[in-house]
Amino acid sequence: MVDEPCRHDGLHRRAFFGLAAGAVAAPALATLLGAAPADATPGRPGSRLKFAAVSDTHVNTTSPQSTTWLTQVYASIARRDPDLVLHCGDITDTGLPDEYEQYGKVLPAALRGKIHYSPGNHETRWDPSAKEEFHSHFGPTPYSFDAGGVHFVGFDPTQVLQEPGHYGPAGLDWLERDLRRVHRDTPVVLFQHFPFGNQFYYVDDQPAVLDVLAEHNLRGVIAGHVHREDVTRFNGLTQVTLNAVRNGPFYYWAEKTTAADGTAVLDVKRVTVAADGTDTEAPFATVPLTGGGQGREQRPRYVHVGKVSGGSLPVEVRASATQQVGVQPYPQAVFGGTSPGAWLPLTGSGDRWTGSVDVSALAPGRQRLQVRVNAADGSWWEQVALFAVPAVAGDPVDRWQEQLPGSVQGGVTLAADGLVLAASSAGEVMALRRGGKRAWRTQLGPVYRRPAVHGTLAFVPSADHHLYALDVHSGRRVWTFDANAPVLSAPLVSTVDGHEQVVFSAGQALFAVGTDGRRRWSVPARGFSSGQAASDGERVYTSAADGYARAHDARTGKELWAYQMVSGVENHIALYSGWDTVAALGGDVVVFATVSSAIALDRATAALRWTVAGSAMYAPALVVGSSVLLTTEWGVLTLVDLATGKPLWTTNLALRVFNAGVAISDGTAWVLTVDGKVIGVRLSDGARLGWLQQSLVYTFGRPVIDGRTLVVGDQNGVVHGISLP
């Protein structure tokens, strides 16, 4: 079963790789190419099934070890003649084309057409193709297929240019529609890169995912990412995480068998392959495919949370008297990582469990309480309940919301006459009047970075390879520029000799286009960038994934200087360079950043003026008079003297901050944390002011402030209008 259309470009590569993935070509064509159709059913329902699973191969061109172990693993799997193979992502180390080619050389002919893939964050985090490279090799995602009486779902929660996972409303809708078509007695196994539950918080909307899965016969989850083995049983399913092939020649062999009680199970073994090809098997996990156990019977009948009073939240849960019930505020601040939690046991009386939770440390706004009902065998059921923390004087207040399809990852932009433009990864661009009233909407290609506005034109970057110019009053398309690669950077409008031009990156190239849509100049092969350039009218300043910061002549694009910020092998540079930096100008310096430090270079000569340690390449540096505000991804804000780099003050919010960063108004820096908080920081001394939990999903989009209203979008596509104190 597949809902996604087939991509016909890249079929020559799919023929070379022989990869099944989500291909939905006609069966005859798929067979000709050596790629099994995604809806093929190897065997009748209830028939035998044997398959292998691998994860985190991290193939790159600089480490021979990255293919040595994989070669051993695939040779061993091929000898076993599986019905299919699951790959749970991080196939490559950085998603570069030569890494895909290297991976293709390892595949034995016997496995072509049998491997199904879900991408990992390493395929999409630093990817200038916006997943085009992955899809051209492996087909569309998500997808599903049936084999041996089991329904398999290959999901893709990865996000373009971002690290953690997110399903979003569209992904949840797809999952619900797919599972609704499956017979209620058919077991479902989901495989993807990120695991759920336990201490794992890699998917920010996983409570919503678990809500969908709870209504269907999901029996198993197979995942990678953590590079270690883990077996957990919760919400009626068994989840296994796989050790990485990057760590050694490991894979996992599963066979559908019958347990002693006559029920169907997947018997999963770990296989270690010696250099001479000898296999060593060890028991790993058993995944029941029928019955109610593994936590399903722990599902609470009733969860009620009261009103917060004095920083305390009353809770009542109705569950079996033989269980133990624990609760905790959902660890919202955990960004794509793990947390052991701080679980509060409730007091049981019969089937009634009660207690009060201290929520005094939480930001005002909507919050989640995580509820877990534990059984003696170690399985559990978990779900969340919503509650509200009241605001106090000095806190921001969420006033209005507007929904867009996709994610508002690219941020919002302030246009003329109080209009705010918001663009989404689903390609919708919307103009909102003050108060959140919709003025117009139009459909383009996917947008991952904020538009730029000059006069009556809005310049919108799109992953469909185009920069669009729209009339800000009507949304009418004025012109379209074909960049021949995904436009994943934020455009900059600058004035050169009295004429405006739009500067942006697409693929490996840097472009300057007039406001009439005509190319002024372009610089090829300078390295991928998803950040934003800066310009003083004489020079254009950029940084890129090749490790260099550069200055180009603003009139011709000629390179004037280059400063190497990161060195090393190709994949190391791609991972840690300033590819996501928004360059900032102030005084006679230009500020760049990598994941190690922020640096100030002399505008004219590239002489190093100062360095401040810290990973400040994601949140934009903001010039404030003779100072610059630096924000690290770990939530450390430092106001620095532009001339000397001397810190004037430092504030540690202890919360992750990424592309959304900071907006400044009336002497206050309003920080947008990745976990959906708005926090005020006084610019004069770094003191913390009011705060708000404005979203329960990740926030990457840069905000704007219009008067006393901060406008920001989140990964669920919701645009929030927030009143500032």
Structure commentary:
It is a single chain. It is built from nine helices and 54 strands. The protein is mainly beta and 725 residues long. It has a six-stranded mixed sheet. A six-stranded mixed sheet has the order 4-5-6-8-10-9, with no helix packed on it. A hairpin with a 2-residue loop joins strand 48 (661-665) and strand 49. Helix 7 packs parallel to helix 8. 55% of the residues are buried.
Structural classification: mainly beta
Rg over C-alpha atoms, rounded to the nearest angstrom: 26 Å
Overall geometry:
globular
Q: How far is the N terminus from the C terminus?
A: 52 Å
Present the secondary structure layout.
Blueprint: H1 11-17, H2 27-32, E1 50-54, H3 65-80, E2 84-87, H4 97-106, E3 115-117, H5 121-124, H6 132-138, E4 143-147, E5 150-154, H7 168-180, E6 188-191, E7 200-201, H8 206-213, E8 218-223, E9 230-234, E10 237-241, E11 250-258, E12 264-273, E13 279-288, E14 302-305, E15 312-318, E16 324-329, E17 337-338, E18 344-345, E19 347-349, E20 352-358, E21 365-374, E22 380-389, E23 397-403, E24 412-414, E25 420-423, E26 428-432, E27 438-443, E28 452-454, E29 457-461, E30 466-471, E31 477-482, E32 492-496, E33 499-506, E34 509-514, E35 519-523, E36 534-535, E37 539-543, E38 548-553, E39 559-564, H9 570-576, E40 584-586, E41 589-593, E42 597-602, E43 608-613, E44 622-624, E45 627-631, E46 636-641, E47 647-652, E48 661-665, E49 668-672, E50 677-682, E51 688-693, E52 704-706, E53 709-713, E54 718-723
Parallel strand pairs: 1-2, 2-3, 5-6, 6-8, 8-10
Antiparallel strand pairs: 1-11, 4-5, 7-17, 9-10, 11-12, 12-13, 14-15, 15-20, 16-18, 16-21, 19-20, 21-22, 23-54, 24-25, 25-26, 26-27, 28-29, 29-30, 30-31, 32-33, 33-34, 34-35, 36-37, 37-38, 38-39, 40-41, 41-42, 42-43, 44-45, 45-46, 46-47, 48-49, 49-50, 50-51, 52-53, 53-54
Helix pairs in contact: 7-8
